[in-house]
Design goal:
single chain; alpha/beta; Rossmann fold; 6-stranded mixed β-sheet; 4-stranded antiparallel β-sheet; 10 strands; about 30% strand
């Protein structure tokens, strides 16, 4: 079953003859529960693609469908609610609230949506990610790797249909990078969570179930 699909997706900037085709006719399908890496060099279009998949940007043409919902069919407020409920984001810079504890950072998306936190599920996530004894700390008391674990927990706790990870190891050393990638693999399998990660690193991409390569805004290869 596909949880995410696009059809002839494009994102163009400017007009001819100086038009930039950041994404140029991308059609793809992502299976539920899979861990997919989208790999490409700087300027290949991978970040633009991730923003389109997550409804953070509007395509020039084509479609994005997440968990059966065509994103272009949603108004601005509806899209914001859909993202909060259905899509989890993990960013390179963690994007944690410094004045909140680890626990409050993790549960923030659920509380913003007016829902009750599944405490049993949260405790399971915290234990899996090694955060069970850090829930009352502030982010500035954690290492970079630990802060990224908090970001992963925050993405998971809302039980989204899809998690999008934007260069999640970009600010980490090689040892911590391997730890975080291992945790993404673990959470994908343990919680049957669909993860799409973009990276410029081929070695990191090989850790995923599937690798999609993008160049000049186009998919040029796919490997399972």
């Amino acid at each position: 079953m596909n949880i995410l699909s696009t059809n002839n997706l494009t994102k163009y900037y400017g007009a001819e003859p100086l038009q930039v085709k950041a994404i140029d006719g991308v059609t793809l399908e992502i299976e539920k529960g899979s861990f997919t890496a989208i790999v490409g060099t700087s300027g290949s279009g991978k970040s633009t693609l991730l923003h389109l998949l997550g409804g953070l940007d509007i395509p020039t043409s084509g479609s994005v469908c997440v968990d059966g919902q065509e994103l272009s069919g949603l108004g601005k407020n509806e899209l914001a609610v859909f993202r909060r409920r259905k899509i989890g984001f993990i960013f390179q810079n963690y994007n944690l609230m410094p004045n909140l504890t680890v626990y409050d950072n993790i549960v923030l998306p659920v509380e913003l949506d007016g829902r009750n936190v599944d405490k049993e599920y949260l405790n399971s996530i915290a234990t899996t990610l090694g955060l069970e004894d850090k829930l009352n700390r502030k982010p500035n008391k954690l290492s970079g790797g630990q802060q990224q674990r908090v970001a992963i927990a925050r993405a998971l706790v809302a039980k989204p249909a899809l998690i999008l990870a934007d260069e999640p190891t970009g600010n980490l050393d090689s040892h911590t990078t391997q730890e975080v990638i291992g945790l993404l693999q673990t959470t994908s399998k343990k919680y049957h969570q669909t993860i799409v990660m973009i990276t410029h690193n081929d070695e990191i991409a090989q850790s995923a179930d599937r690798t999609i390569r993008i160049e000049d805004g186009r998919i040029v290869g796919s490997r399972w």
